[in-house]
Each structure stands twice: as C-alpha cells, then as structure tokens.
Amino acid sequence: MEQVIVAKCARYERSEVEAAVHEIIYGNAINANVKGVRLASLLKPGMKVLVKPNLLVGDIPAKGITTHPEVVRAVLKELLNLGVQPIVGDSPGFGNPVKVAEKAGIAAVCRELGVKLAAFTEVIEVKTASSAKIMTGFSLAKEVVEADAVLNLPKMKTHGMARLTGCVKNLYGCIVGVRKAELHYRLQKTEMFMEMLIDLAETVRPVFNIVDAVMAMEGPGPRNGNLRPVGLIMGGRDPFAVDTVIGHIMGLQTKEIPVLALAQNRRKQGAYLDRIEALCADAELEELVIDDYRVPAAPAWIRLRTPEFVGKLIRKYVSPYPVIGENCRLCGVCLKSCPAGIMSITKNGERSVVTINDQKCIRCYCCQELCPYDAIELKVPFLRKVFFTQRRRRRS
Fold it and tell me: How far apart are CA 194 and CA 104, in angstroms?
C-alpha cells in the first residue's frame, strides 16, 4: 500500500514550513508505530540530489505560480543536514531558467545556502523505462540524468488540460526548452500527451515528492487562477499516489483526472485512493476535502471514451478552445509558446490583435497557461454545453 504523508502548514512562516517539511522527511510527528519509508532513509551522504521545483514562469512568490522559496529553503536545509549534495533546477515554460528562479525567489535561497542552481541547457538522450507505453526515449536535462536521485517539489494547482498539476505533471520540466513544445505538437491528443507524462514519470522515477499546498491555485491555472489557502505540505514516494490525494482534496474522483485515469489502466497502485494510506498527524483525510474547489472541465475523451476516428471532431466541437480577451497587451508570449505556430498578430482596422487559427489549434492550452496578463480564456463550445447538460439531467 502506498503512503502519503500530510502535514498541516497554515502559512509560509519559516518555522512552520520547516516543521512541516521535517515531518514529511522524517515522519516523526506521525504515529511511531506506522511503518513506512521516509526520505531521510532513502538518501546517503555524498549523494547528488536534483531538487526539481515548479518554476513555470518568472513571477514573485506571492502570485502562487511557483513552488514557494520557503518550502525550497526548508527542503534544502534538511538535505544539507543529511550530508547530500543538492542542486536545484527546472526548465520553465517561458524564460531563462536562472532568471525565472531569480524572480521566483529561489535563486536567492540557493545563494544563501551555497547550493548550485542548474542552467538546464545541456541535454542527454535516455531510453524510457521498460514499462513505457508510447515513448522510446526522452531528451532530459543533463543535471537530471547525472543526479543520483531526483526530489520532486511541485505546487498544488489546477491546469487547463490536465485538470491538476502536481507531481507527475511537474516532471515535464525535466525536458529542456523547445523540446517540450515539440512533444505538445507531436502528441496532439490529450490522451496521448498524458500517456507520455506517465512514461516520463516512470523514467525519471523521483526518489520522493514534496508538494507545496500551503497556498494552492484553483480556477484557470496553472498561472492565472485564484489563490486558495489549503494549509498543507504533502509528501510520498509514489507521484501517482500523491497526485491522487491532491485530486481527492480538490473534490475529484481519480477517473476524472486524465493522467490518473490512464494510470489506472496501467494498474498503477498509486492511482487508486483505496490503496493509499494517508498519514495525517491530527486530521482524517476526508476532513481536508474542499467541496467547492474550482477545477477546469474534464477533457471530452474522459467522459465520452470515443473511438479514435472521431478525435478531430471532438477537438473542434466539444473541447474548450482559447479566446483572446481585452486584457491582451500584444506581448507575444503566446505566439512564442504556441507549439503549432498558429497564432499571429494582425490588423483589425486601426487596431492590432492576436488571432488564433481555430481550425489548426491542437487544444494544448500553452497560450492560456503562459499568458502573463490573464488575457486568454478557455471557452466551452455550445455543443458540449448542451450534450453534457442533457447527460447530467438523465443521471439526476
């Protein structure tokens, strides 16, 4: 049975964060009779450990977009006390990794503790794990491949395509720069993209996962959602198990989360809530569930389970599509981040506007994910509204 440790942490006060992280790493605040492997027992002095936070874009910690620097600091201090050699790195969705880490407050933490910040520019081609389903190899950052262990530090957030971004999705940052966009374009079906993420998680195999859920994000995440106080830090060996607990706290069933629904098809034990032991020091897991947590709509294939030949029709008439709003400032981030290259700036009378070729849109939502001004909204097609309203009425 997979174990997930859940520690309460109401705010980013240094002492509170350090206490919660210590609990996750050592488990000494949990019932001493409960057996389970803690991170402290998995690491040996001298090991090189790649610490992988969420560094989606360069923005201040108060925005809640990236792993909070106080969580990173607490983790690094524990690693240094264990005698390992940590290095911090991620490949952001947009921007230079070092500059993004600087803006997110993580570069300052690295300087303070004398920990190296990885550039994530060099790539090593690696073969996938034997359990991989659709990928034969990945182009991973050199620092990921050369580390003795990878410690995954995601942020609890919603996501337009994946519904939630936690442990499994955070590992996508182990792939460097433009190669992430190439995979989006190659794997245009959401189902295929999620299968790739499972292959990636199986290949990277993080030694442990620690989730910053002190202040999480709901609504149109992972960048432009609303902050939601959750007051938790979670940890566990299995990224699927930790994500299952995150989804449960968000009020979602596992089958409603694309990557976990597919993980169940592969019989991943961590994708089944009833096969997870949630270790909460002073609360039951059910007490932590947030009934009104706002999560993006599920991809159509999750509900419809349609045959292959209608996939394109679903993307066009049922899947949410991006629409440029009035907040647009023509910064060009969406154009640079679009894997399909189907966005452009055109003249509309006296005014310049960003346009999207909807016929060629692959519904990856990278534009919405990375827009710095919350100017891109995911609209639900009329046909989907009618169809799913009718389905809900039949079930009620």
Answer: 27
CATH code, domain carrying 307: 3.30.70.20
Please, where are the H alpha helices in 305-381? Answer: 311-317, 333-337, 366-370
Do residues 64 and 45 lie in contact, with contact meaning Cβ atoms separated by under 8 Å? no
**Of residues 1, 173, 33, the one with CA closest to residue 104:** 173
Q: Is there a single domain that holds both residue 280 and residue 316? A: no
Q: Following DSSP, what letter does each residue of 96-153 receive, concatenated?
A: -HHHHHHHTTHHHHHHHHTPEEP----EEEEEPPTT-SS-SEEEEEHHHHHSSEEEEE
Q: What is the dihedral of CA 372, 192, 183, 101, to 10 degrees?
A: 40
Q: Is 211 helix (H, G, I), strand (E, B) or coil?
A: strand
Supply the DSSP symbol for 284.
Answer: -
DSSP letter at 231 equals E
Q: Model pTM?
A: 0.88
Neighbours of 70 (CB within 10 A): 22
SS3 content of the chain, % helix, strand, coil (to 5): 40, 20, 35
Contact present, 147 and 86 (Cβ < 8 Å): no
* pLDDT of 360: 86
- Same-domain pairing of 243 and 386: no
342-380 residue pLDDT tens? 999 998 888 899 999 988 888 888 898 889 999 998 887
| Residue type, position 173, single letter | G
Q: Are residues 169 and 204 in the same domain?
A: yes
pLDDT digits (tens, 9 = 90+) for 246-290: 999 999 999 999 999 999 999 999 999 999 999 997 789 999 999
Burial of 40 (0-12, 13-18, 19+ CB in 10 A): middle
Helix, coil or strand: residue 45:
coil
Domain boundaries, position 381: 300-395
The amino acid at 315: R
